[in-house]
Fold this protein.
Amino acid sequence: MTSIESITLEVADPTAAQRFYTAAFGLDTQVGLSASEAPTTGFRGFSLSLTVSQPADVKAIIGTALDAGATPLKPVTKSLWGYGGVVQAPDGTIWKVATSARKDKGPATRQIDSIVLLLGVADVAASRQFYVDRGLTVAKSFGRKYVEFETLSSPVKLALYGRRALAKDVGVPVDGSGSHRLVLGGDAGTFTDPDDFAWQATTVASAA
């Protein structure tokens, strides 16, 4: 099964970004950082979601993210699917923190159950087939709206969402251009997908 071994955010200042991600979310090894001044404007076409077990954890993590310098995009609120909020990191990456639970079972632990990378794509069905052709296995699919892949060995799950729908979900205008400032690493090889998201091969061949 094809897997994602790494996800790297390209940022202007990796040291400052690392301080933010450690303070805001408690992330250190799950998301890599590299220096880049690649031009980009507006929505970068993706977001990262942190799934937690209860509303108290959503509020706690969003709170520390704001204290660490994040910009609020959507306030923490209840919805039909659960409870969540959205912030933008100082480096420009959009993060959603959410839970399907509606009530707390205890005090906040700040434990992150999963990290999901959502790629906003022009054609969900076409991108789904592109990734299937490269060895990824579909775990969930809702027609042309949403696709989630099996990435059992990866700390980050991969999903596809329509670009316009994703922008609406995280509370930003859909317009954007330039670099995504995102690089995915895995054993599927080195390629660029239909929406210009870049992948790099990370599997090292064994010596003969």
